[in-house]
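Hi everyone,

Forwarding the result from last night's run.
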Amino acid sequence: MKILRVCLAISYVPFTLIGFNYIAIQIVVSGYDYYFLVMLLALAIMLSFFVEYLIPYQKNWNTAHNDSVRDLLHACVNEAANSMSVILLPIIAAFVPHLNFWPDEWPIWGQLLLAVFISDLGITLVHYASHKNMFLWRFHAVHHSVKRMYGFNGLMKHPIHQAFETIGGTFPLVALGIPVEIAALLAFAIAVQLLLQHSNVDMKIGPLRYFLALAPLHRFHHIKRPIEGDVNFGLFTTIWDRMLGTAVYDADRIFTSEDLGIEKEPDYPIKYVAQMLKPFSRANDRVQ
């Protein structure tokens, strides 16, 4: 049994990261409707819950903290917004100057990797700015209010902040002429990455920690104390954090709910509607 748990801890990330994105590519290549990607994402979410149950990083993070309905609403609203942005991409592209440099001749997996690399830079910079700029932090604080980390609440964001990240990550891609199918695959890849980045799985990632922004690294980002938690901003990779000097990792550090949240606002709203309204009230002073 112990061997099986170790094998699961080692295989979960590559199976999810490679397996689900491979299936997504096959769905698009085969000409199936994009709603099959939504069904595939639902399967990835169910697998996330199942593996978190089998090998949790913290058992009590599998227990609802009066946040299940809220997280479901966040996921539904934000993923619906992502789907709508893909649908509207041709209309959006009509208003953005085209460079027509997109490498359509590349294999679809190569185009997806390029989209991931470019969007990762844009999203990381918006994320970094959100910890430095008070206006952006007001909306980003919703995501940092969590008191437990599990895959599904990786999809928990204020839709306005998600819009900022989407613009930062996709504007260069739209300018380059990214095809709709690659944009759809990118949206799916981002959702899967968020599941892995916030996962409550006691995953063993070995040398992948030097390249991929997975849960063992991202937990440092959710430390509730200013400055100490202003690290590991990358979505997909650690490349930009290394360039920014914000890459942090300590294999011996153990996280609990006491480490999470917003130190200067311990009573941050929990309910969905209250979180939607909070950024329009007094901002907290985490930003230094």
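The chain has eleven helices and no strands.

Cheers,
N.
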